[in-house]
Amino acid sequence: MIKISRLALVLLIFAFACSSERNTFTNRTFHNLTSHFNAYYLADVKIKNVENLVKSNYKEDYTQVLPVFIPIDSTSIQESADTLQSARELASKAVEWHRISKWVDDSYYLLGKIDYLQSHFDDAQNTFKFVNVNSKDKDLRHKTLISLLKLYVDLKEFENANFTIDYLSKESGINDENRYQLYRTLAYYYETRNDANGVIGALTKALDYVDDNKEESRINFILAQRYQKAGLDALAYDFYNNSQDGNPPYERSFFAQLYAQQVAELNASKDLRKVRRYYEDLYNDPKNKDLKDVVVYEMALFEEKQGDTLKTLQLLHQAAKEPGSNPRQKGYIYQKLAEINLDNYKDYRATKYYLDSALTFIKETDPVAEQINEQKETLDHYVFHLERITSNDSLISLARLSPEEQKAIAENFIKKEEERLLAEAAAKQEPESNSIFDNLLAFNDRGSGSTFYFDNSVAMQQGTIEFYRVWGNRPIQDNWRRSAASFQSTEPTIAAPTETDSTGVDEAANPLNQLPDLETLLAQIPSSEEDISKLNLELEESYFELGKLLYFELGEVESSIENLETLVREYPNSSRKPEAYYLLYLGQRDRGGNFQQYIGRLNNEFPDSQYTYSVNNPEAASGNLAYLASSKNYELAYDAYYKGDYKQAREIIVNTLEEYPLTRNTERILLLDIMITGKLESRQQYRQRLEAYIQNSKDENLIELARNMLRPMMSSEELASLNKSDSTALDSANLANPDLSNNEGLENLPESPYKVNESSTHIFVLVMSPDEMENAEGLLGDLEAFHTKNFQNARLRTGNMNMNSDHAIFIISPFSNAEKAKAYYQLFLTDFKSNEITEEIKNDSFVISIENFQQLNKTKNLEEYRTFFKSVYK
């Protein structure tokens, strides 16, 4: 009875302790223990398991700058749906069953993390905000705010992110773990905003608080990549070495060693030999069997730096054949081949096909794929028309020959194809070199001395071709199939071999598929006037489209003239002739040739054409329809450029220049097209177009604008030479390029208090006197109408303030970076109309970063800032 009584007493106490309504010491202790070590702990473990699965499933691409956070893969989350659901149930039990425990808020935080992982962002945001408001645990609140900050950055809600950062910056007592996560999240914030310096600063701070060796190694690797990208090779070298500490994954260690060679200082030829031996040792190391393509690719980049383009191309071709573990690497190899063929040889056809190959290895969602597709669009049109011209010309030429001549040419073509296939087989028979650099196109076939038939690819190729000559391209089949077929039909049909059929052959590898037959070749030759007429119509279109594309898109004036002259010579009755004359007029004018002949031809043959009107009236009156229409198109193109839709902007520009070739808008439209070049094409091409524009343009204001656009790309010596006689311009150059402060003869220039930060938030400022502002009652309405028309989705705000007794200002904000602010400024100067302000006030407007505005508000020295503004922004 005593034992029973004691057991009953324990059960009674336990029953009272289980109650979540009684807030006693016993109850609290029970619920704290149970919620912590049962529900909360198990839910936390399951969430960490899912996070680890996301990490393990992610393949790091060390050829690109690593992201601060490993992206969350939706596939991994879907695979873990049951695990996350179990974690959600456990965390919910910790909240519902143990309401008086101190782990309730922590469990709510876990629920927010689960919603975040499953992309339920609204629910996650609400949960994080709830925990921040209700929790009394400072560490938990900090952790929650950091998670909320990451969520805001994911959604690109930068205003909310800025508020959260500001709030956290004023918090005290943030523990080391939270500080580490905060600095990582700040680095992610700057990464999303393309602020490289911010990323470096935040990750450097994160290193002070990291306690995981593998994470420390990864951060060091990211810092090394970013320093290398910034051109700070010495710092990059140190961080690559640091990233090899802490037992990192082998692949990261491999790339750290590899990239350290890129930034190592090389002072003599013996250093070059040392690097080449280093790459060769990496290539021969068995541990790098799946990384050989990377080694050869890096060697190609090294040889490119030494100026050996031919060797670079050879190594890149070899890299494409080497085994590798990262398919994207092949894409980057082909992209590099495309870049060299475009920049060094202007081989647009090869560039197009290399980019096609690159896209087969790079995912559609990869930002690089989008960039390649934009670049490839013009090249696709170029290659289509070029190959159609080549093909149709050949077919029409063949059609004029006798049947005997046609047959002889076809047989000769087949013979050459046989020789080519044999030559390819012979190339594969070359013995493998002991050094990758002795034989840059090494293969893994056996030596040519092999006597066994199936080891000798030349013999196999020769046998295949000989079989084809005797028997034709017939399917391979066993004797029993032929016997069975003879009983069923006098014209047996043999089923195609299946995948499991022992006699099946790899059709893609069969050389017969590469060898054309005589009948097929002869059937392609047109035999009727109707067929030839169709080919000629295609030729006419392709000559014209190719000439236009070469002039407008590729800047190849000579080739454009050649194609257009062929068009007007071979197809004198073409409906495209007036526009072709006009394009020839533009091309000859650009090259300093005889463009007057095309003015005469247009007047004689097409006196009523719009192109004739354009060449006769280059300074057409502003009221004509062409000017108004081109002005409207210019607005549309500029709006697309402002929104970042550069492809759409270029399409509008090309169509406008074709439809309204010469108006008073032409030069500013061309300058906008050059600005788009700066976004889509190489820096070198951007500079070349600016320099050509400055030489050919007649509008002094646009020339000055182009010069200011060119200035940031000029070296210190070029700027000093350009501005030698102009002290104001010299000061501007010093401000635009801080490196000039070290040049001889510039030491005495005053240092500007203003700093260049193009990624910073900017505002637009109109300056007037207080009386002028008081009388400008309708200015706000005019500005709002201007914003509604041109910047409907930009959420611009307008305000005003008195700077001092002499100056009042209107402020339009915010612009997320300098580029958008400048776009607004330029459109304001050209298109804003208001009777409330004078042209002088309009022209004295400027844009300024938030940091520089704070400085300006202190000094009130408007002229000092305008000097800076003219040098950096105009």
UniProtKB/TrEMBL annotation:
Official protein name in the record: Tetratricopeptide repeat-containing protein
Positions of the UniProt region annotated as Disordered: 731-753
Pfam family of the protein (one): TPR_6
Residue spans of biased composition, Polar residues class: 731-745
Signal peptide: 1-19
Domain of life: Bacteria
InterPro entries named among the record's database cross-references: TPR-like_helical_dom_sf (IPR011990), TPR_rpt (IPR019734)
Protein keywords: Signal
